[in-house]
Amino acid sequence: MRELEQAGFFTISDTGVEVETQMQEKGLHLTKSDGRAYIKYSKKVEFIRAISHLLQGENEVEETSAFKANGYMLDCSRNAVANVSAVKKLIRHMALMGLNTLQLYTEDTFEIPEWKYFGYGRGRYTKEELKDLDSYAEMFGIELIPCVQTLAHLNEALRWPEFYDIVDCEDIMLVGEEKTYCFLDDMMRQLSDKS
Asked: 101-137 in b/e burial notation, b at 16+ Cβ within 10 A?
């Protein structure tokens, strides 16, 4: 709630609407009467969604998502890479809309320390930035999902000399080459390591 307050969505005070919460099995239910709001929810993101209904002045809402995963894919491989503060702003807005997944489409816009030219000159997320974004999204009940390319669609990365011996043709990696699988292992390790 403090993150949403600092972003300017509302002010937390003793004179505001008192909010009472309760967990329930499925969906969200909001009722407001006599200056008090009652929110029942089953997931964090549903609680934030209920807050957005309060901000819109609604007095009674009942919602159940038709989808287990409902979200947005942000393309970070075309044009500029969204900086961390822009992605955090997006996460806050997604939570207020009740969306629970954010996919970052990153062909080569994250660092892999073993491959110094992967994402070189393109703008790329560090491991620490991705961990920070993952923690931030989790705080709102949103799952951050890195979407990457393996074996193909790696035009920008495969143009560098360190990749020449694992290129089959154009933007496709050489299947059956041990170094290709070392590269893919390094990629997956970078994106899945929580330490």
From this structure: bbbbbbbbbbbbeebebbbeebebbebeebeebbebb
Is-contact 96 49, C-beta < 8 A? yes
Express each pLDDT in 14-32 by its tens digit. Answer: 888 999 999 999 999 999 9
What angle in degrees, to the nearest 10, is found between the helix axes of 127-139 and 84-97? 20
Structure tokens at 42: 């089953």
Homologous superfamily assigned to 2-63? N-acetyl-beta-d-glucosaminidase (3.30.160.230)
Residue 32 and residue 55: Cα distance in Å, rounded?
Answer: 12
Topology of the domain comprising 71-192: TIM Barrel (3.20.20)
Question: Is the full-model pTM beyond 0.85?
Answer: yes
Residues 6+ apart with CB under 8 A from 148: 106, 107, 110, 187, 191
Range(s) within the chain of domains with CATH label 3.30.160.230: 2-63
Rounded CA separation 20/41 (Å): 11
Q: What is the pLDDT of residue 19?
A: 94
Q: Give the mean model confidence (pLDDT) for residues 169-192.
A: 94
Q: Look at residue 19 and give its three-state secondary structure.
A: strand
Task: Give 35's pLDDT tier (boundaries 50, 70, 90).
Answer: confident
